[in-house]
UniProtKB/TrEMBL annotation:
Coiled coil: none annotated. PANTHER family: PROTEIN NLP2, PROTEIN NLP8. Residues 57-186 form the NLP1-9 GAF domain. It comes from Opuntia streptacantha (Prickly pear cactus). The lineage of its organism: Eukaryota, Viridiplantae, Streptophyta, Embryophyta, Tracheophyta. One of its GO terms (molecular function) is DNA-binding transcription factor activity. This is NLP1-9 GAF domain-containing protein. Transmembrane segments: none annotated. InterPro entries: NLP, NLP1-9_GAF.
Amino acid sequence: ALPVFEIGSGDCLGVVEIIMTTEKINYRPEVESVCKALESVDLRSSEMLNISQEQGQKGSYEAIMPEILNVLRTVCDTHNLPLAQTWAPCSQQGKAGCWHSDKNALCVSTVDSAWYVRDQQVMDFHRACSEHHLLRGRGGIVGKAFETNQACFAIDVTEFSKVDYPLSHHAKMFGLRAAVAIRLHS
């Protein structure tokens, strides 16, 4: 589902739901097509798709990303985990607002330079995560960890509703269940 905003006021006028006949992980081309159609009639959706990841500002945390990546790799290899990802506030990454809100201060997204996929069979799950932004407090355990400043654990993320964790159906497609999110502080 894509929010539809009026260009001048930024008011959300409604939501467009895109329904497909096949299960896909990468539906970015379809979403971009809808976004272009909206722009042709002076409407827009979230700017998330219109900003290339290279345009994002590098936050002050970029210097520690190699160290975080090393920790993610070590943890995955030691404990035989399929993947680990780093999420950060969109505002710190210079990314635009998310699918659910046009205010980037409220959402988090994966950090392009700090993720590790040990099991290549879940690479498409990582790609799906990198295309989604999650709201703080409404992004499964990641959003909850950001909101509460506490480590969070879920036995089965596929049981979350799509509203509470928009990636739950992707997790189910890849057989991923348990997850932990730990908020790091400087």
